[in-house]
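S., here's the first fold you wanted:
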Amino acid sequence: MFLSHKNKAGLAISFVAATIFCLILNQLLLEHNISGPTAWAGLSSLFLLFALYFALGTTNLTDKIQQWTKGHKARSLLIPLPLLFTYLIYFFGTKENQLIHIVYVSLFLWLPVFCAMSTPGGVQKMTWSDLAFVLAIWGPIDGVLIQEAWHWPLGQGSSAYVNTTAICLTIMLAIGVRGLEGVRYNFKVQKQDWKIMSLNLNLASVCIIPLGFVVGFVRWAPLEFEITQFISTFLGILLMVAIPEELFFRGFIQNLLQKSMKNQHHALILASILFGLGHFNNDAYPGGPIPDIRYIFFASVAGYFYGKTWIKCGIFPAAIIHAIMDTIWMQFLRGT
């Protein structure tokens, strides 16, 4: 039964969390004098995305999707419909997009479905269709090809919408359609996880920060500290950067590499290098060179320790130390 006690609790937590984040975002909109029906449409769309985002990690919805599509792969084509529905609320409510953007979003939602459907049933090792799946979702995001479809508000609203959509789509397809095991996407941190998280966070810091100063990757350039801004930065990075990246690079790529390679440590190293290469278009500081070999190297080192955390604890604990590293870097070591 879907509405078990656990699922009811998970759904309640999901809706409360989505409400809190949308209230925070609404406050930011009010500070920019953005309100009225347009704001309600944008926030309603984001609320539904956040609610699904959290529900996938607090209920057994993915198991239900897997049961529903088992033996009926054509049903997989219906999975993106809720995500398209949230986009249509955004599209018609904010009135800042063009009809072609519906086509872009539809391609973004359904191309990964065909990739997931083409993987032979029960196969846990990496296949060519898995690489196509990653490229279909990650490529448009990393190449900044899909963001313009979420233009509102202020011409820069894409991050929250794109990343939550990508996470929901990845989870529902990777687990629900492809049947990938061991992703470990849930919003739990066990008592024993904190020791592992602390160890890997400290090791990553020791390996990156001193050498980073030597090669000019980091520099002491603290921003004005304000506790609410610091917390909101951490939460934003956690939800919009760390969890998506940990899901893709650890829950999906490293997971498949470990099942495909005999040496698990080699799989961890390869996944870490791929994580570093995924940052080829990032700059170490505003105005810095792109690509920056230092960024790729240090991201690979950080990815190694995030990967070790994922192995022992899962996606959410790995994402927490990922977000802590990024927040400290942005607040104290990156500059403006």
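And the second, which I think is the more interesting of the pair:
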Amino acid sequence: MIALIVIPPEKLPDVMRGAGKLMRELRLASNLVMHELTSVADLQAPPRETPPQPNRSSGPAPAQPEAGAAKAEDSAPASQA
């Protein structure tokens, strides 16, 4: 509505076309800056260290007692007949 009051109707298509071009240029420039910043950040980031994986070819891992199993034995009544 305000555009119709400020800009005459015969010039409105040209103004909107110019605004569209300006917005496109700003978006492209923004994408370019974000791409550059991302590539620089990736170059400066230290490589991520992965923890060593357990060797699974040597057979199953030794069984460890569960914490819940020990508590169940301790809390059971001693005199069960």
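Why I say that: The chain is about 60% helix and 0% strand. Residues 1-43 form one domain.

Talk tomorrow,
H.
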